[in-house]
Amino acid sequence: MPTNGVPTKITQGSGTKGGIGESTLRPDGTLKVTGEFAYSSDMWHEDMLWGQILRSTVAHAEIVSIDTSKALATPGVYAVMTYDDLPTDVKNYGLEIQDTPVLAHGKVRHHGEPVAIVAADHPETARRAAARIRVEYRDLPVVTDEASALAPDAVLVHEARDDHHIGHVPHPNVVHRQPIVRGDVEAARRRADVIVEGEYTFGMQDQAFLGPESGLAVPEEDGGVHLYIATQWLHSDLRQMAPVLGLPEDKVRMTLAGVGGAFGGREDLSMQIHACLLALRTGKPVKIVYNRFESFFGHVHRHPAKLYYEHGATREGKLTHVKCRIVLDGGAYASASPAVVGNASSLGIGPYVVDDVEIEALALYTNNPPCGAMRGFGAVQACFAYEAQMDKLAERLGMDPVELRQLNAMEQGALMPTGQPVDSPAPVAELLRRVKAMPMPPERQWESSEGADVRQLPGGLSNTTHGEGVVRGVGYAVGIKNVGFSEGFDDYSTARVRMEVAGGEPVATVHTAMAEVGQGGVTVHAQIARTELGVTQVTIHPADTRVGSAGSTSASRQTYVTGGAVRNACELVREKVLELGRRRFGSYHPAWATAELLLEGGKVVTDGGEVLADLADVLGDEAVEVEEEWRHRPTEPFDLRTGQGNGHVQYSFAAHRAVVEVDTELGLVKVIELACAQDVGKALNPLSVIGQIQGGTTQGLGVAVMEEIVVDPKTAKVRNPSFTDYLIPTILDTPTIPVDVLELADDHAPYGLRGVGEAPTLSSTPAVLAAIRNATGLELNRTPVRPEHLTGTG
Amino acid sequence: MRLNFTVNGRPQEADDVWEGESLLYVLRERLGLPGSKNACEQGECGSCTVRLDGVPVCSCLVAAGQAEGREVVTVEGLADFARQRAEGCGTGACGTSLQKARRWEARGTDSQTGEGTDLAPVQQAFLDAGAVQCGFCTPGLLVAADEMLERNPNPTDADIREALSGNLCRCTGYEKIMDAVRLAAARQSEGV
Fold first, then answer.
1. Which stretches of chain B score pLDDT less than 70?
2. Same fold across A29-37+492-631 and A40-140+212-259+266-298
3. Recorded GO terms, molecular function (chain A) (predicted)?
């Protein structure tokens, strides 16, 4: 067993400037502050056309007819395409289950489903032409929740399923179901002195990345197409696109354009196939850019959920058992629902030691908007509920909520409900201790010599209170998230690293297909190359499909997996460079054969610090290049009946303390401070790590107090697809976020690092809810909390 | 219609502008200045913030025709604008003196990373403080923050939050943006 918390020893590169562990600045930073960074929506081509998608105005209906004649007759229109114009027999796509039509055929299953596409010479012409397409719908009954999905006479969202989940689901309107059973809950329940139950509701959250879905498809002379695109995973897109386009994968070239945020919302395809179809049809470059309204329909959302929990404990506060049922609304198409179910179930009781558990998680097919990946991926919904339960239990037992958590906190060596041992540091109690030990923000900060500063009060500049009716509350929460793709998925990354002399200096070039979506992977790759190759000059090659897959920029996995691939490729390059050196200079100095050699500061040195040669001399005119795939430890699927299995690669943990002030008369909440402590294993770039934690924390705050896509329960239509009606936190809504970063190495991971991006999104929401409960004494079983829930008027 | 206005100190002319086009569309699609971003097209997110005769506006909500004869500063012109302001040319439209033009030489900028580019102090502060992640909100925030620091060189935290409350950011949680603006203000007052 590796020693708990000893940082990985790094010898190679520890003397090179700008290597891992330093807060080096982003290589794309200057372009981003000058406006020159080319995002997907900035792409431009001579003679390019603009594409527009016509989307369904109803949620569930048969398509009786589509009349495109008026659109085709519009001056400036080059093409109009419907299902009938698709070039091959492959007309669906999907991440795991190919159930999503490129263009609707015969029926639509959710509000905003693509029905037809138009290309024209001006975006407004394309929009107007699309509006002139006449689609006649015949309404079908809508499936909107568990009751309507699983009723004996329920309408089936997908009539003829043949996917690999259909054999084990209880109903064709269930995408996937995962039970997890360990121990004997009935027996454990008899040992419980206290049992608390709760029903919780989690609203539908949107990723709300600022750069809307967009890209430019350029037809190529060989009949292929080149797509410049904002995505999270180039090769996954390619695999889904090529069969629909009827092209071999090598004729669909993909280059990553600038990505304006992702958060899971770009895991699925959006306009990729549509733009390529129009480009191939017209022979002209076609650009598609969604506006914000369309973006709300153009990507999957975070699954809304109903969660039912029972926790039991002894008088002393030891958990006896947990029983829970998590019902996720997957909407009309599968997207990532099966994997979200796997996470919600396997992480469903949180970072606690419980021997007797019964967990069930499932995702429904409904006619609501499709749901899939969003930061936290199934673990977020569960954390909101189990942390509310822990507070409820603490109250019933008369215990401090942090102490109750610490008493039941898992440590390294604990078993997950899946039976998987946690074999790296799990500092759950320590993170809670740290976040609790942070200094509290002073009371009544709004008071000043000039009266109340309303900007620091609930209601802000609306000037609704000067402190009257304002009550403070404090809440805590902790969460557990898996890192990397789980359940037996072959989750590899590829890196190509090249070293050569340019301008008299050794330069490393790192080429991967990793989607830089803002997280700073490009910064970290350059740092790894400097550390491993002892150079200062590193060029990050644009990401494209001319190199092997880097997997998805999701699941907090890129620094671990593509970072691991870059390190691995650098190590191989280093060996080749040293081999070259031995061939060229080995006879001049015995240390070439006997000493451990390092690359430092552009030189080959012995581990004793003696310089043997300049890298530039070793390389001469030669370039050393390596392209290699790299894999983390394999995982295995969860058993379909018991949920047992070593399904996850790594776990990550974060804890939050929220301090809120609530205007109890108007139900307005001001989050005063949201402190976070997180274990990151090893902070490769501390500045970026803190940025990830603060950003994730803020998305958790959003879904605590404001963010929710509202879907009409009668029509399944989206009611608030705009930033006017779907609110995300502004700088006024966001408090200070002090961060305490713990670095306990995971010896299975490169440099001991732990995936960072998602864990802070989990515990932020329940901490804010706990603080509001603490301030108001209300039960609050749903998120987001709206004013009417606090004033009893809702 | 034909549109004549000044962008980043240079007179610009755009022909065949459709009356429904926004100032943002003309900047991005007709003048080759895509730095101002389109993220909501309804004035909620601030990503398209530019200065119109000195006033920060959401260029997505300004009809192109409204810019006729006026002066616009975008993120692409922010460094020049800040330099000229520092040199005492408040409007940013002073242009380049003959003497300066004679001294001009090509900068050794790196075409891939932009290294070596002249930056406004607020741009440098955003880089140094880690305020840029995906960067889509950055141009609008920079224009808004620069304008605030021009008006209020020593802002309190509450002042900064109020001034930037019209600019949404989804990546950073705003903490590093606060750090960046504080840093720019501190450097400005120290004369760095």
1. 90-112, 192
2. no
3. iron ion binding; oxidoreductase activity
